[in-house]
Amino acid sequence: MALLQVQHISKKVNDIILLDDISFEQQPLQKIAITGESGAGKTTLLKIISGHGQADSGTVLFEAKKVAGSEEQLLPGHKKIAYLSQHYELLNNYYVEELVWFGNQLSEENAGKLFDICRITHLLRRRTNKLSGGEKQRIALCMLLVKQPVLLVLDEPFSNLDPIHTDILKTVLDELTDGFQISCILTSHDPHDTLSWADEIIVMKEGKIVQQGAPEEIYHTPINEYVAGMFGRYNLLTANDAAVFGIELNGKTVMLRPEEFVLSKNPAEGVKGVIEQMSFRGSFYELQVLANNVSVVVRTMSNEWRKGDTMFIKIRS
Ligand SMILES: Nc1ncnc2c1ncn2[C@@H]1O[C@H](COP(=O)(O)OP(=O)(O)OP(=O)(O)O)[C@@H](O)[C@H]1O
């Protein structure tokens, strides 16, 4: 049975549609990431899922029971669903241990395990005004987790973190799923975070779900240019463009990611082209290649190419 069932959720404010007939399910321990442009409705949806917002119509079922909206209960929220807002705040000048023991429902041993998983054991005797952003966030998370939620709902948890703290948080979330059997749903703008972390991605635009699927599916077969663009650079080739690279599309178009092209110095290995632009991106180079008047973005890990080089390009088979 699904842990969470979101059924036909809609919401309007002043005739502006914030959510339009949103439905999806989350299985126990499934990791779902919701992405989409700013204003797509992600926060509004998370609040409704966790009982901190009110839908106009539709139902959220958690463990097959209705989650009451914020206007249907005195204290908004659901005791088994922990919601961490993008704008959480820790009480100032408290010891961390005072905060995390407050509301604790775990045994001392399990609380200790949780503090270890959240990488905050070394911070327990620290005051809250002497913490980094990443540390504060893991403490805010831990304050929710000591209450033994079943579902963790996180709004943009990676948005203010550097790559090191982002990786720590992803590891923490994975260990919570494995060690404490907690399911998680989160929002993120960053394709790298959603692709590497999620089992399932939901892409939203203007209050609607535009595509839902496994990360590989969303990345390689996006339903439209909006979804393609959310997950990085892409080439949209018409049938005529594709014919340059020897692909027959019968009038259709195809979307190809930059890494789907291969460059070679061997004339037998593709069509002749020239490198018009080149930029270093850390672990790869991004090239703009012109071949028979068709310009494509190409990604390569090789440092053998220079702007102005002539080479031969083909689509990876
Ligand atoms: N209480 C409100 N009254 C009127 N409009 C609202 C209200 N809350 C949100 N909105 C609008 O609803 C839309 C969706 O907002 P929401 O915060 O859910 O989007 P989001 O996808 O989370 O955006 P972001 O990624 O920028 O946080 C936005 O256009 C926002 O301005």
Question: Mind explaining what this structure looks like?
Answer:
This protein has 317 residues and is an alpha+beta fold. Helix content is 25%, strand content 32%. It has helices at 42-49, 96-101, 108-117, 133-145, 163-180, 191-197, 215-220, 225-230, 239-244; strands at residues 4-13, 16-26, 31-36, 57-62, 65-66, 81-84, 151-154, 183-187, 200-205, 208-213, 235-237, 254-256, 261-264, 271-280, 285-291, 294-300, 310-315. The strands form four sheets. The chain has a six-stranded mixed beta sheet with strand order 6-7-8-3-9-10, with helices on both faces. The protein has a five-stranded antiparallel beta sheet with strand order 13-17-14-15-16, with no helix packed on it. The longest helix has 18 residues, at 163-180. The protein is globular. The two termini are 40 Å apart. The relative contact order is 0.12. The mean pLDDT is 93. It binds adenosine-5'-triphosphate. Residues 13, 18, 36, 38-44 line the site of adenosine-5'-triphosphate.
**In sequence order, what are the helices and strands, one letter per element?**
EEEHEEEHHHEHEHEEHHEHEEEEEE
Q: What is the averaged pLDDT score?
A: 93
- Point out poorly predicted stretches: none
The biggest sheet, with number of strands, parallel, antiparallel or mixed sense and barrel status, is: 6 strands, mixed
In percent, how much strand structure appears in the residues?
A: 25-35%
The count of β-strands is 17
| Alpha plus pi helix count | 9
Portion of residues within helices: 25-40%
Principal-axis shape:
globular
Bound molecules: adenosine-5'-triphosphate
Structural class by secondary-structure content: alpha+beta
User: How widely separated are the two ends?
Assistant: 40 Å
